[in-house]
Predict the 3D structure of the following.
Amino acid sequence: MNKPKSIGFTLIELMVVVSIVAMLSAIAYPSFNSYMFRSRRADAQNLLTRVAAEQERHYSQFNRYALDLSAAPPAGLGMTLLTSEHGYYTVSVAAGPSGDNQTYALTATAGGRQASDECGNMSLNSAGVKTYSGSSTNRACW
């Protein structure tokens, strides 16, 4: 008498597959997370360069930079949207080291999921110097 053939997987085969999937996930997830942080930084870069362009336009018209982004010109830029396109950063402006309206420093503050990024907040000043406040030693933040 022939023994009927079983259909399906054994527990050992199933555990081997589960362990392989777990190892692949442990390798892939940190890389994916790093990629997502890096791609969201483009949101801050876009925001800072857009506001810097508005600052230069304001300077060409009024011979000074605006230190209030939401006020109407000539006191400010008249911007109504102070967050990045996807909402991961908010922008603020401060007077430069001289304390007058001849220089400025823009800062994009990370929020939401981006708040734990190793690059931290990103900054751009009137001289075009790009910096970041995080603990990263990687030059790829900008």
Observations:
- The first helix runs from residue 11 to 62.
- The beta strands are 89-95, 104-110, 122-125, 130-132.
